[in-house]
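[09:14] KT: can someone run the structure on this one? pasting the chain below
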Amino acid sequence: MAVILNKVVSGYLAGTVATFPSSKEASLIAQGLASAGLVANTTPGNVTANEYMGIAAVAIAAATVVITNDKVDATTPVHAVIAQAAADATALRVERIVTTAGVITIHVTAAATAATLVKWCVLTNQGMTQTN
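[09:31] RB: done, structure tokens below
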């Protein structure tokens, strides 16, 4: 199993997917320092996923999917891509991503003609320093 780190652990940045011995992973999860595995939600429509990454599905006839997520605010950077080999005929790529307090809204290019999977990732700035 792999865990998603919620905080810096053993030199890994928050948001990193890491593999440790089972006992350490269980301990990290119990302490709230990590979450188990990736969130994989393939049921089309809006979801709640309080993780740093996951998969959501844009529903048929929709051009957005909304992810309620307590890890984001209006300034949190998020990355997302279409996550299937044969993309929907109209929802070809992620057009834009809008974050507000507790919400990620992922917009695709057009209303989907089939459920369309989107992989998303909350980017963290831990350990990064801005230089000019």
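[09:33] KT: thanks! The radius of gyration is 16 Å.
[09:34] RB: yep, looked fine to me
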